[in-house]
Amino acid sequence: MDRFILFCSLFLESKMSIVLSASAIAKQSFGKDGKWVARRARGTAEFRGTLRYCSPNVHEKKEQGRRDDLWSLYYVFIELHCGLPWQTLRDKQKVELLKMHMSDKDLVLNFPVELHGIVPYLRTLDYYQRPDYSMFYEGLLAVMKRVGAKASDPYDWENPETVRNIALRTKLVKLTVAIPLLNTFHLNQNGER
């Protein structure tokens, strides 16, 4: 079973909880009455997070909020399903170039169609807006239904053929999308485009 489908099933139906935590960059977001309150966004916010998973907003030094958490989750889903085009890169400028200039169509090239609308939606959100979390949830349920996945299905690493297929998809995305896109940009030594 595909890692992504398995993750979806665990995320949605399992008794086991999966927690992705970045407590080093967590912010207080509750007022005295217990209701959610966004603190005022800073004019600029320095880079914080993990290069591979941070949202395009982080690269633009915008305040991180709930929308950015969903960007990160979406990138995790893509990596689990077919690999991120930049997952082997360590150069911050190259990763940023890919995130900022790769088309949504190329980003979701081998990703389930039920989840294609999420990236354009995330691009519409500002720091203060509450994301439509049900869009993620319903998309994940639709993928699981289409492929007939259940939370009780075996992990992908229990099937060597599935592991090989994921590796091939990851290599294909890198060769057909990421490398050609990076080659279209010529960075000088200062990193200017």
TrEMBL record:
Annotated transmembrane regions: none
UniProt cross-references to PROSITE patterns, sorted A to Z: PROTEIN_KINASE_DOM (PS50011)
GO molecular function: ATP binding; protein kinase activity
Keywords, alphabetical: Signal
Annotated Protein kinase domain residues: 1-144
Residues annotated as signal peptide: 1-21
InterPro entries in UniProt: CK1_Ser-Thr_kinase, Kinase-like_dom_sf, Prot_kinase_dom
Protein name: Protein kinase domain-containing protein
Lineage of the species this protein comes from: Eukaryota, Metazoa, Ecdysozoa, Nematoda, Chromadorea
